[in-house]
Amino acid sequence: MGTVLSISPATKKASIMDAELAKNDKSLKRHSMFVSLSWKKLVSNSAKKSAKKVTPKPLPARELTSGQVAQLNSDNIRKTHQTEEKKPKAPIPVPVPTVPTKNGDGLVQNGRISTVQKRIVIQASTGELLRSLGDFMCRRCFKLKDLNSGEVILWFRNIDRTLLLQGWQDQGFITPANVVFVYLLCEDTIADSIDSAAELQGTFHTCLYLAYSYMGNEISYPLKPFMSESNKDVFWEMALRIINRLSAKMLQLNADPHFFTQVFQDLKNQRDTSEANLDR
Q1: What is the pLDDT of residues 84-114, one digit of tens each?
Q2: For domain 126-274, which CATH number applies: 1.10.10.60, 3.40.630.30, 1.10.472.10, 3.30.360.10?
Q3: Spatial distance between the Cα atoms of 264 and 124, rounded to a whole number of angstroms
C-alpha cells in the first residue's frame, strides 16, 4: 500500500502571496527607515546652523581731526533745530483785557488796552511859593494890620543868609520843596489869634528850625538865628508840640507824592492876587 500526498492549490497560492507580502514589507521598512534617517539628519543640520551666533564685523575705525569734529557737531545742531522748527508749536494763551464800561475810559487795539488819564502839572518858582507863604501868614494873622508878605519873606531870607555867612551851610535852604515843608508846619501851628508881630516871628522861627533840622543838608544847625534867650522855654515847648502833632505828616510829605502835590497845590492857592498885598 502506498501513501498519497495531496497539495491544495489554494494553499500554494496563499503561500506565494505571503512570500510576496513579506518581501514588500521588508522593502517598505527599508525605505521608511531611509526617509526617517534622512529627515532627522536634515533637521539636525538646520538646528546647528541656526544655533550659530552671527557677530557683525566692526567697521574700521577712522580718526577725525578737531575741525571735522566741530563740523559734525555743527551739522547735528543744525539738523536738530530744523527738526524742532518743523514741529507744530502750541498756541500761547493771550489774556483778554476788560473793556471799560464808560466811553472814553480806554481804547482796545490789537488785544491791548490803552487808557488816557488827565495829568495835572503844577508849576511854581521859589519866589512864587514864598509869596504864597507870606500871603497865607497875612491872611491867617488878620489882626496884624501892618503885616505884609514881604516882611515874612524877609524873616526867612535873613536866617538863610546868616547860616550861609557863618559857614553853617554850604548852599541855601530855600527851595520849592523846602518852602512846601515850611508851609505844612506853619499851616498847623500859626493860630489866627496871634496879635503881635514878635509872637508871630517867634512861632515862624520855631517852624523854620524844625524844617532846617528835618530837610536841611547839614547834620545840625545852631539855635541862635532861630531862638532868642527871652523865649527859650517857649521855643522848646512849641517845638515839642509840633513834633508830636506833625511827625506823621512830615514823613508822609516825603514818602507820598500825592500828599506832597496836595500840599503844594494848597500853598499855591494861598497866593493873594490883589495889589494891596504885593511885595514892596
Answers
A1: 555 554 444 434 334 344 444 444 455 444 4
A2: 1.10.472.10
A3: 9
Task: Tell me the β-bridge partners of 107.
Answer: 114
C-beta separation of 135 from 277 below 8 A: yes
Long-range contacts of 139-145 (CB under 8 A, 24+ apart): 139/270, 139/272, 140/190, 140/191, 140/192, 141/190, 141/192, 141/194, 141/195, 141/200, 142/192, 143/192, 143/193, 143/194, 143/195, 144/194, 144/195, 144/196, 144/197, 144/200
Residues 6+ apart with CB under 8 A from 75: none
8-state DSSP, 95: P
Residues found in the chain: 280
Can you read off the three cell numbers belonging to residue 237? 515847648
Q: Which position has the grid cell 488796552?
A: 113
Average pLDDT, rounded, for the chain:
74
Cell of 31: 525605505
**φ, ψ at 107 (rounded to 5°):** -135, 125
- Can you name the residues that pair with 109 across neighbouring β-strands? 112
Give CA–CA dist 117/260, Å, rounded.
Answer: 20
CB 266 within 8 A of CB 178: no
- Give residue limits of the domains in the chain: 126-274
Res 265: pLDDT: 94
